[in-house]
Every structure is written in structure tokens, then in C-alpha cells.
Amino acid sequence: MCLYTCARRVSLAFASFLISLLLLIGSPAYGETIDHSDWNQFLKKYAASGRISYTAIQDRSLLQTYLDYLAQLTPDFLGTLNRESRIAFWINLYNAVVISQVLNHPRIKGVEEIPDFFKAPVVHAAQVDLSLDDLKNEVLRKGFRDERILFALVSGRMDSPKLLAEAYVGERLEEQLDFGVRQFVDDETFNQIQIGARIIILSRIFADGGEDFLLRYGSLEGPRGFSKTEAAVISFILNYERDAEKRLYLYDGKYKIQYHASDSRLNQAGEIFG
After folding, report:
1. Helices marked H in 26-169 — which ranges?
2. Eight-state DSSP code of residue 235
3. Residue 253 and residue 244: Cα distance in Å, rounded?
4. What does R_g of the chain's alpha carbons equal in angstroms?
5. Which of 160, 82, 155, 94 is CA-nearest to residue 130?
6. How far is residue 234 CA from its own chain's centroid?
7. E strands of the chain, at which residues?
8. For labelling, which of 26, 190, 209, 269 has a CA lying 20 to 30 Å from the CA of 50?
9. pLDDT in tens, 19-72
10. Measured over all CA atoms, what is the biggest interatomic distance in the chain, rounded to whole angstroms?
11. Sign (positive/negative) of CA torsion 101, 104, 105, 107?
12. At a CB cut-off of 8 Å and minimum separation 6, what does 173 contact?
């Protein structure tokens, strides 16, 4: 009975939060800002390689102070922020909670060893408790509709993007998101695009989040012979690929698309992807 009551309470709170979120999207900005300095210091110290040095983290005070600070922010305050600052807030919160949860479970080899890692209401912000899945899928993906966000969220797995070694901030969000996408597209550990090859191998992010690319890239003319989602993904990659020969090869479409297998190992610094 308690489990049902608790789940129902979380569900109602989250529904209320979503309504607040939709209202906040249309709110004017008054120049308010969020202090991400503690998170910035933490990242520069422990995520310089894009992976996390979990075993090196002996002092969690920067991380915990930052999470406590974000937890006390109210929906009214978030309503004073512009869209870019709200996106930066949620991205930073997601990544910080992932790291905190991993640190709460030392000696694990992957986040799947933590019960309900993505489903439990462990995200505390805007006066509600959310799960990591709620934050990623309902708040960020559905709330803001920007496919670049997929490459800013670090799930604690080796097959997730590398962590930007600085906090996302509203005034530089466009630059930071574009940088993250270019870095990801160019990284051959995630995407193998060899000119002339009959098969290209892409990150599973493009498979699992494929529909996110339809909004801005689904109507563009891309290579023929692919599904709408695949064509949108290729159009997205073309937008960020800087190698002229690779762009021509991708546009010609004389290849098939495969996706990497899942790699659920912990994104510990020093591990090798693949």
C-alpha cells in the first residue's frame, strides 16, 4: 500500500511540475543567473579527460554543496531565467546527480548494478523529486526539443558522451552544445565513418534518440534509401561534419548504417571504449 501511495505522490508531483514547466517556457527573463562555480571547479578537477576519476574523488563537498544549492531553487526563480539558462540548469543537474549516485555505490562496475538507477526519484529540484529518466525524457527532450541535448547528458555508461569539463551556462549554451556535438561526431570511438566503406557504425544515441532529429532535420534533403529517422540523423551529422570528403560520401548514401552494441561499463577515467 505504501509503495502505491508513494508512487502516486511522485506521479502527482511530477504532473504538477510539468504544468509549471510549460508555464515557465513562456515566462520573461529578468537577468537572474545560477551560480555553477562549485560544479565548474569539480569538473575541472575530476573530469578533464571527459571521463570521471571516481576513485580520485575523496572530497565530495563541492559536488554536494552544488546539489544542495540547486535543490533549494524554486519554480518561481526558474521562471526568471531565460530558456538557455534553464536548459543549462537541467543538464548540469542531471550530470551532477549521476555522478553523485555512482559515488553513493562504490566498487560498482556499471550503473545497472544500482537498483532503479534511472527510475528512482533521486533528482531534487524545483520543489519536486524526479527520476533521471523523468528529467531526461520529460523535462529536457519533450520540454525543450533540442536534439543537441542528447550529447550533453552523461549517463555514467561508457557509451554515453564524454563530459564537458566545464559547467553549461546560459550565455554560452549554443556554443557549448555545438562544441559537444562536433566533438562527439568526430570521435571515432563513437562513430566509424570511413570513406568508401559499405557500412558506417554510429553511436546507439542515434538509434535510441532517433526521433529527436526529425523536428529540425526531418525535412532536409538527405541521402535516399534510408528511413525518415535515419535520413534525419545523417542530415544532422552532415551539419556538423567538417571533412568535405566525408560529407560527400555521407550525402551519396552508398552505405548501410549499423549501431554500436551497448556498453554499460562505468565511464571511469582510464577505461577504453568498445
Report:
1. 37-46, 61-71, 75-78, 83-103, 132-133, 142-144
2. H
3. 15
4. 19
5. 94
6. 20
7. 123-125, 128-130, 199-202, 256-259
8. 209
9. 455 445 545 455 568 999 999 999 999 998 899 999 999 899 999 999 999 999
10. 62
11. positive
12. 84, 85, 87, 88
- What single letter denotes the amino acid at residue 5? T
Question: Which DSSP state fits 159?
Answer: T
Q: What are residue 261's phi and psi, to 5 degrees?
A: -70, 155
pLDDT tens digit sequence for 79-93 = 899 999 999 999 999
User: Are the CB atoms for 253 and 224 separated by under 8 Å?
Assistant: yes
Q: DSSP assignment, residue 163?
A: P
Joined grid coordinates for residue 38:
562549485
Neighbours of 165 (CB within 10 A): 14
Distance between CA atoms of 37 and 166, rounded to whole angstroms?
Answer: 9
User: Quick one: average pLDDT of 192-202?
Assistant: 97
The identity of residue 105, as a single letter, is H
How many other C-beta atoms are found inside a 10 Å radius of the C-beta of residue 139? 23
Buried b (16+ CB within 10 A) or exposed e, 186-219: eeeebbebeeeeeebbbbbbbeebbebbbebbbe
Bridge partners (DSSP) listed for residue 265: 110
Residue linked to cell 558522451: 161
List of residues 6+ apart from 122 with CB closer than 8 A: 97, 101, 129, 131, 132
Of 212, 202, 195, 179, the closest CA to residue 260 belongs to: 202
Three cell numbers, residue 168: 553549461
